[in-house]
Amino acid sequence: MEIDFLLIGQGLAGTALGYRLKQRGYSIKIMDTPADNQSSRVAAGLFNPVTGRKMVKTWNADLLFPEIIPFYSELEQLTEQQFLTIQSIYRPFLSVEEQNEWMGHSADEAFQPYLKAIVQESQSEYLQDPYGGVYLKNSGWLDIVSFLDAMKGYFGEDLILRKFTEEQFRLENGKWTDGEIVTGNLIFCSGVKAMETRFFSELPFAPVKGEILEVRQDFTPDYIVNRGVFRVPLSEGLHRVGSTYTWHDLDQGPTERAKKELTERLASLVKLPVEKYVSHKTGIRPATKDRKPFLGKHPDHPNVYLFDGFGAKGVSLIPYFSKIMMHHLVDQSPIPSDVDIARYFDYI
Ligand SMILES: Cc1cc2nc3c(=O)[nH]c(=O)nc-3n(C[C@H](O)[C@H](O)[C@H](O)COP(=O)(O)OP(=O)(O)OC[C@H]3O[C@@H](n4cnc5c(N)ncnc54)[C@H](O)[C@@H]3O)c2cc1C
What we know:
alpha+beta, FAD/NAD(P)-binding domain, D-Amino Acid Oxidase, Chain A, domain 2, eight-stranded mixed beta sheet, 21 strands
């Protein structure tokens, strides 16, 4: 069986890139072991254009954000399933100074695509928001598990539920083969597992563990609340709360320390107690030292590529960068130098 591209991993990255390559008429297969998924199947799926303690536009927001809603909506139509929720994020102010600063932003052209409203009064008796806050737009969340499962149906027999092992594949006449599949190109979309391949083990990955809860709380507004922690309404009374960030204890499962941290942060945002903890999950984000994705071709091994390193922001980065990667693979268009893995291989 001869194909153009073999992708390793059907997380967010492999799913989006596989779709784009198929759309262009190329033959693909994706190998995946869903039970080993480290990140996509745990993630909250938020896309948030204004982030961080200082609330600045997220890196490349004006390139990335116009792609997000059209991309996932297109795939909803394709699969006839619903997995995208376009929803405002409400961020309470901590002080009058912050309120004033945001009143200033309201006239700023650069913030217009992302600013829905600024309010100066508390929005609910259940919120800790005495100074009001800002409602963002062009935001929301992707139900990633439903998305990946819906896309499994789209890929059909092109998805092989099997572990890819390097020992099984060898290079013959410029193509990679295990005796059964023959492919022109190998593309690693394997999240943190790419660190374990001989091809990419030298790249500066910086995996980050995250813990996330589902809790019951009897206050369900039609917006996400976000300050120090996010709370995403899933259904009446049920909310996703996250996430923590740690660079150690990567192998440990759920910890009491993280549960306590998330519960305390939630209490500083929502005045109601947690009625019930419904779930507590952990995952490892495929982050990188310079916080930029890893796209590109291995300098020595023929036709071996990487599409990875999407860290804490896969949902917002992948629609745009899967397009860049697809054009690189099929049209030989250049990859922006700040995300090209050549930025590291030049020094190795
Ligand atoms: C707690 C938590 C919260 C998060 N919240 C958000 C959020 O709100 N918004 C956001 O945008 N991002 C969030 N993220 C980050 C997001 O999950 C990642 O950016 C994204 O999912 C990475 O996708 P990926 O496809 O690169 O990697 P992965 O999801 O890890 O997928 C890689 C796939 O490759 C497969 N694989 C690996 N090796 C092999 C092999 N040898 N053979 C076969 N298959 C293989 C794995 O099984 C897996 O299915 C969060 C992450 C965590 C942990």
